[in-house]
Amino acid sequence: MRICIINPNSDAAMTAVIRENAQNFAAGRFEVDCLTNETGPAFIGCYEDMHACEAGMVALIKERQAAYDAFIVACHSDPGLDLLKEISTKPVVGICEASVKLATMLGHSFSVLSTSMRAVPNKQALCRKYGVEASLASVVGPDGATPDWENPDNLIRLGRRAVEQDGCEVLVLGCAGMGHVAARMGEELGVPVLDGVTCALMVAQGLVQAGLTTSKKRRYHAKQTD
């Protein structure tokens, strides 16, 4: 089995972090490749960024349909996910959709840790779209205007606030680059902590093994060509 993870932005350092977390989970049980969308923005923080990364991701998937069994969009805004599900003949999994849906199976309520306060409404909207809003305790953003969200201590502080003040029972890491803190946060806070890349790999692996892919009956009906 070969699964392709696409980092929608052009940050090679972010791709390296995603690749390390993904390979640690795969542990040789299946092959994982992680690609950088070199034509995308350096960071995806708004809807304009999401739009700007779509063409590059479309090209990557169209070029590699035959080479991989599934694709993963490794950004917690799930940019272009509906479009990619439509054009791909293989399963396409977004890390936000995978993580928030799995979170509902592990506890009564969950919170999402956001990289910025600006991104909070976007994550709330995605939870509404994915039908999990009733289980959403909160979306927690950093206090500072320019937070060091890569710092594990800062992320654990946010997670603690969500558990103690908002009453969540599961934490979802709201960025593909946060996976490095999942194990430590879970140990310190005593709740499941979900890394979106790991969740997407779990879903993608299961879909491939079951021989399932996205329905093209109506919503994702592919364009017909002569």
What features would you describe in this structure?
With 226 residues, the protein is of the alpha/beta class. It has 8 helices and 8 strands, in the order βαβαβαβαβαβαβαβα. Helix 5 (120-129) links the parallel strand 5 and strand 6. Helix 4 (95-103) packs across helix 8 (196-210). It is globular. The model has no long low-confidence stretch (mean pLDDT 93).
Q: In terms of per-residue confidence, which ranges show pLDDT below 50 for 5 or more consecutive residues? A: none
Number of strands: 8
Q: What strand order characterises the main sheet?
A: 2-1-3-4
Structural class: alpha/beta
Number of helices: 8
Percent in strands? 15-25%
Distance between the termini: 32 Å
Largest beta sheet, briefly?
4 strands, parallel
Overall mean pLDDT score? 93
Order of helices and strands: EHEHEHEHEHEHEHEH
So what's the overall shape?
globular
